[in-house]
Amino acid sequence: MTNSPTTMHAPEYPQSAFKDDHKRFGKVAPYSFHDYRHTLEDSIRDILEYDLEFDLSTKWTDIRIVLGFLASIIGIGGAVYGFLVPFHESKAGVTASVIAYLAVSAITTYITLFIEDAKVATGKRVDPVGVEPPVTLTVASAVDTASPNCQLHLTFHARAGARHAEVRATAPLEQYFTTSGELIAVRFYRDVVAWIHDTVRQTGNE
């Protein structure tokens, strides 16, 4: 007997959590493409978590917090050591603390600029009946400001066991905002849900 895969359903927009939640974003200044992008990325995270029931990962945020505490401890420790110990005795230790501080700061900067900046979210969804393996979905974004309409590029990558699937989508940023800077939530919700469903479906889990 073969078990059929369970289907991941999203609520219709009028019944979605996103219908009311998106209002917290407020208006975006016209042609502020940076703010457009971040509003849409926040929207994707909300849709994943509240409407599609993905458990979002905070891995890189947690790592940055730990690194921040570590940098603070190194900086304060080096300063206190240099203050309490004569210079000729403490200079090696202070130098080491400065190098360690710079190294930790460099790692934090790398995570922020080259990992988190491109990655919108990573989430996992478990099959409630346990038939299919969990689906892990990663969403990445990039903006092409050289394009006349400033294109938003989204990449959806899903993994379910040994099965992988990827869907790429491109749309003008302004397509999802009114001329006054309000998010056209219903349009973005429907597009994002369709892209996510298409990606997950290709893994065999929908």
TrEMBL record:
Belongs to the SPCS2 family. This is Signal peptidase complex subunit 2. It is a multi-pass membrane protein. Component of the signal peptidase complex (SPC) which catalyzes the cleavage of N-terminal signal sequences from nascent proteins as they are translocated into the lumen of the endoplasmic reticulum. Enhances the enzymatic activity of SPC and facilitates the interactions between different components of the translocation site. InterPro entries: Spc2/SPCS2 (IPR009582). It comes from Allomyces macrogynus (strain ATCC 38327). It comes from the Eukaryota. GO terms for biological process: protein targeting to ER; signal peptide processing.
